[in-house]
């Protein structure tokens, strides 16, 4: 049965989009049909990790939401990023957002039909026969985010070991529980290597009464890569890649 996984954070700068791309890629490498949809319409960017740019993108999620095309026209097969090590029939597809200033301004000015977005989720899963659909959300609590959380089988909240993140995540956890999210997972990102990871995991799980799926160490290697590719595919044996593989096991178990 297909699953919808929303990956969310209360604040920007948590590495949410980067983690979404890496998690989705690893799931696809395990032989699943995976979709990724960028609903961070105000600040899109996940398409860069999959090698797409304005020259290769014709239709976007924006065009679908404005009634200019069916959502399948905004889908791009990015399976080539998985390179040659694909098990069975694993594949990955992306629905990007427009990075054009006029389009972003229009979204901020006019908003869009949230119910149509949900219909798009369903059509994507049906048309492409997806096993998993990953939704890269806009940070914070907006109407669009709340609707995404409501329809998700799994909500993964990304936070950093930072007091502002801790407070904001507490609010989001409370909202997710009120929305009766079937499964709530936490991932702690950008953690300094001199932290006691076990102690941090216990503290966070105790605070939010939710499982920590993974702790991602801070690394200059991510900065060096500069979003030029998907980290886990470039450095499969790196501690970060191993931590993300552990998160994937929580999702597909």
Automatic annotation (TrEMBL):
Gene3D superfamilies given in the database record: P-loop containing nucleotide triphosphate hydrolases (3.40.50.300)
One Pfam short name: AAA_31
Segments forming domain AAA: 3-175
Superkingdom of origin: Bacteria
Name recorded for this polypeptide: CDP-3, 6-dideoxy-D-glycero-L-glycero-4-hexulose-4-reductase
Organism from which the protein derives: Mastigocoleus testarum BC008
